[in-house]
């Protein structure tokens, strides 16, 4: 029975143990951890050499695992990440993803699996990703998307990228479920089989980018079918990796032309002269507004005039970027292209090694409002030719961008544009301007001027007062002294400014950037001088973290008045003092001692003073002063008494005792002492027998017997030494009112501490006085009152005789012993 019970108990335990062991094995205890998460819970674990998915905090919102060596995503690698919004596995060696690996990612919006080794895609991966909006499957070695359809469940999908060098076929059901996209990118350079309509059901379709190198060369039917399926008037179409030389390949674009596309971009294309003529013919009459070519190699001579009968009225913008002309020296200028050049309002030829545009060609650009010739080889001389020596050709030009050329003279460019009476924007940045002439002529419409990235060392009134935006960043400027009343934006980053330019010169300035200069500090008053400033960027300067600046800055992080620091607070870093170098100004904690010296001194003085006052009050309340004074008096008295005694011993002896009693009394009780005590004790009594009767006593009274000019305590002590007894006349007055006397007298108790106390003291109570009425600190007196019997001055006359007798007896008591 007992054995069975044990078994029942043990078996489930064993089972649990096994289960936990299995779980342990399954979840790979060796998984590394990635802790590179920022406070926004965005974890960047890219370029970290991981070979499997690392463990990351469950709270992560975005996880970048790109450029690692991860080969597989296991079933429970991503368990717990139900908050994850973005996951990137781009650039790994992923060959295997467990079918349920992504199931926990309920919130995932952005998934990037591009550039991996996935040879087959599984619809199971995406079946639980209901929130997915972006999916990138580019550049994996799969040859088809596979079935059942991958994207069936992805109802929110808006950006889809797929394909790669191995993609061979696309069939009709492949994209079922995908109905509407903002962006579609398909890499299909090796596509050999396309089922017409495979991409046709997506609408509206925001932007399409297709790589169709192979089909354009080998199967134009296929390429046409693809293009036809994605071409809509409102859908910008970009076709990449084309080699267009012959008639057949160019005809593929007719499929897009008949769908009346309006935006066409060719990326990475190789074009011959004849291909361009065919292209212009294919696009004849099509309401194309933008032709853009990015990464174009032209191998002809620019002879496109054979297409001069075609109609391109609708062309608004013509953009060529990163163009290479193979036969530069044979290339003719676009002289015969009036049919093409008279329409566009915007022309950009960027980074195309253009060194001149002949004036005749410029004159063809009749509608031109925007001309961008940035990153070319223009010089002052060829710019003169291009702008027809400033005769006002291109009269509608509003924006001229000649950034990144080899221009050297600002006065030349100002002359050339002076007659462009509509010019508002001029970008002459990244040129070789090293000086500014004292005066220039600009069109009165000029509002925007960019002279950044030159080598200017000073600013002159060459700059027009009409400017609203001025960019002078990345020059060698130290000061700027020029009133620009209309300026709204001023960019001065990357110069050598030591301080902010005075704000009154720019009464309308709203934005100021002055990063990466040598600013040491700025303060409230500097910012106040800019009446309208809203946004300031001043990071990456050489800040001197003084108390004032740190204090100002930390309060300014949230804005001074209307001014906001719009760059990263972390970019404001201390340069000095040395111990703070590299520390973000916002986080510096300066020692209080350093920053509030005056305050500190005054506070500590105040504290010291009040402590002193408090102490004084306390001492006063506790009568410590009194005690101290007493102690002092006692010490002095003791010393002088000893001295006196020595002196006496040395000089033989003068009679030590010369009084019968020293009388200590309050001034207020003087009348009693003088009228009763003295007469009673000192005068021989009538009717007494002078031989038998009491002899008169000799009293010492301070009024009468003290030596003038001696210290009172000395006097008292000497009086007491020379008196046989001390009589204290106690009364309310004595105790309460007559402080001084009392204090002095009290010293006697200490002086005659112990040996002289007791019998030597006679207390007379003039009025009834309870022991408790005597202040506590006169403890000696209190003790005395309890140990010594005292004489009470009787209130009725008859008993006074008795009192005097007792007093006399008390005074004579010692005498008899002595005799
Ligand atoms: C992660 O860091 C790399 C550089 O290490 C960077 O290229 C990438 O953009 C970063 N990813 C994110 C999501 O910020
Ligand atoms: C696909 O096309 C590229 C050129 O784009 C070529 O180099 C490659 O060999 C082709 N791959 C396959 C699998 O056909
Ligand atoms: C071109 O592609 C179409 C559609 O996939 C296909 O039917 C045809 O056989 C291909 N032609 C050649 C020559 O490969
Ligand atoms: C078109 O160019 C040809 C030369 O190629 C020329 O003969 C013809 O006159 C031109 N037509 C127009 C309308 O410019
Ligand atoms: C001029 O071109 C440069 C480089 O292409 C660009 O950065 C700049 O924004 C352009 N300026 C204007 C005013 O468009
Ligand atoms: C001025 O030109 C530079 C370089 O081309 C560019 O980076 C900058 O954005 C331009 N400034 C403005 C205000 O557009």
TrEMBL record:
It is a single-pass type I membrane protein. Disulfide bonds join 37-43, 359-388, 440-462. One of its GO terms (cellular component) is plasma membrane. GO terms for biological process: inflammatory response; innate immune response; toll-like receptor signaling pathway. Keywords: Disulfide bond, Glycoprotein, Immunity, Inflammatory response, Innate immunity, Leucine-rich repeat, Membrane, Receptor, Repeat, Signal, Transmembrane, Transmembrane helix. It is found in: Membrane. Coiled coil: none annotated. GO terms for molecular function: transmembrane signaling receptor activity; triacyl lipopeptide binding. Belongs to the Toll-like receptor family. This is Toll-like receptor 2. It comes from Sillago sinica.
């Amino acid at each position: 029975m007992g054995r069975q019970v044990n078994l029942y108990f043990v078996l489930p335990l064993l089972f649990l143990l096994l289960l936990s062991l299995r779980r342990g094995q399954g979840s790979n205890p060796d998984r590394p951890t990635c802790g590179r998460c920022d406070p926004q819970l965005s974890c960047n674990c890219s370029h970290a050499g991981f070979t499997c998915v690392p463990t990351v905090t469950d709270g992560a919102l975005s996880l970048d695992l790109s450029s690692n060596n991860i080969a597989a995503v296991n079933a429970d690698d991503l368990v717990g990440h139900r908050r994850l919004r973005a996951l990137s596995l781009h650039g790994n060696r992923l060959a295997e993803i467990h079918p349920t690996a992504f199931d926990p990612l309920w919130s995932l919006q952005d998934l990037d699996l591009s550039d991996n080794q996935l040879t087959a895609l599984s619809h199971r991966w995406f079946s639980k990703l209901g929130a997915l909006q972006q999916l990138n499957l580019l550049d994996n070695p799969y040859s088809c998307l596979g079935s059942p359809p991958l994207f069936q469940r992805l109802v929110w999908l808006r950006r889809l990228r797929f394909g790669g060098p191995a993609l061979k076929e696309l069939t009709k059901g492949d994209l079922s479920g995908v109905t509407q996209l903002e962006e579609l990118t398909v890499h299909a350079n090796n596509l050999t089989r396309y089922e017409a309509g495979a991409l046709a059901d997506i609408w509206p379709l925001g932007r399409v980018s297709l790589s169709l190198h192979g089909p354009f060369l080998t199967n134009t039917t296929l390429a046409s079918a693809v293009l036809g399926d994605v071409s809509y008037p409102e859908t910008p179409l970009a076709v990449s990796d084309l080699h267009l030389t012959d008639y057949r390949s160019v005809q593929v674009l007719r499929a897009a032309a008949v769908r009346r596309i309006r935006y066409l971009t060719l990326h990475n294309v190789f074009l011959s002269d004849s291909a361009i003529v065919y292209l212009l013919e294919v696009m004849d009459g099509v309401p194309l507004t933008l032709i853009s070519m990015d990464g174009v190699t032209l191998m002809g001579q620019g002879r496109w005039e054979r297409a001069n009968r075609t109609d391109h009225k609708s062309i608004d913008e013509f953009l060529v970027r990163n163009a290479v002309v193979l036969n530069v020296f044979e290339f003719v200028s676009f002289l015969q292209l009036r049919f093409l050049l008279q329409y566009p309002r915007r022309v950009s030829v960027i980074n195309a090694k253009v060194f001149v545009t002949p004036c005749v060609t410029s004159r063809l650009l009749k509608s031109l409002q925007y001309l961008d010739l940035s990153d070319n080889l223009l010089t002052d001389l060829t710019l003169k030719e291009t702008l027809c020596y400033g005769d006002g050709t291109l009269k509608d030009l509003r924006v001229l961008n000649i950034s990144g050329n080899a221009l050297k003279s600002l006065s030349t460019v100002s002359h050339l544009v002076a007659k462009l009476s509509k010019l508002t924007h001029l970008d002459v940045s990244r040129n070789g301007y090293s000086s500014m002439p004292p005066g220039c002529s600009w069109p009165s419409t000029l509002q925007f001027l960019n002279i950044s990235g030159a080598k200017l060392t000073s600013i002159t009134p060459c700059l027009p007062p009409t400017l609203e935006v001025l960019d002078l960043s990345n020059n060698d400027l130290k000061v700027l002294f020029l009133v620009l009343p209309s300026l709204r934006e001023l960019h001065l980053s990357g110069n050598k400014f030591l301080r902010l330019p005075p704000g009154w010169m720019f009464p309308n300035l709203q934005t100021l950037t002055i990063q990466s200069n040598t600013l040491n500090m700025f303060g409230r008053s500097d910012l106040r001088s800019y009446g309208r400033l809203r946004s300031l960027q001043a990071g990456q300067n050489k800040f001197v973290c003084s108390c004032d600046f740190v204090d100002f800055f930390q309060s300014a992080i949230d804005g001074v008045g209307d001014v906001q620091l719009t760059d990263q607070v972390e970019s404001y870093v201390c340069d000095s003092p040395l111990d703070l170098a590299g520390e973000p100004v916002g986080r510096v904690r300066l020692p209080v001692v350093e920053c509030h010296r005056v305050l500190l001194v005054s506070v500590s003085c105040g504290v010291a003073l009040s402590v002193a006052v408090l102490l004084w009050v306390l001492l006063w309340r506790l009568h410590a002063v009194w005690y101290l004074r007493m102690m002092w008096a006692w010490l002095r008295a003791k010393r002088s008494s000893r001295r006196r005694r020595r002196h006496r011993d040395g000089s033989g002896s003068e009679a030590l005792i010369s009084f019968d009693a020293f009388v200590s009394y309050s001034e207020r009780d003087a009348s009693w002492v003088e009228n009763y005590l003295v007469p009673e004790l000192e005068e021989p009594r009538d009717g007494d027998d002078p031989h038998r009767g009491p002899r008169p006593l000799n009293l010492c009274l301070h009024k009468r017997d003290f030596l003038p000019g001696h210290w009172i305590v000395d006097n008292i002590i000497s009086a007491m030494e020379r008196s046989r007894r001390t009589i204290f006349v106690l009364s309310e007055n004595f105790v309460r009112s007559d402080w001084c006397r009392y204090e002095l007298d009290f010293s006697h108790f200490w002086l005659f501490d112990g040996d002289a106390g007791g019998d030597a003291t006679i207390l007379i109570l003039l009025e009834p006085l309870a022991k408790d009425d005597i202040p506590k600190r006169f403890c000696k007196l209190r003790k005395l009152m309890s140990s010594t019997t005292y004489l009470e001055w009787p209130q009725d006359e008859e008993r006074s005789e008795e009192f005097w007798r007792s007093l006399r007896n008390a005074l004579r008591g010692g005498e008899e012993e002595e005799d």
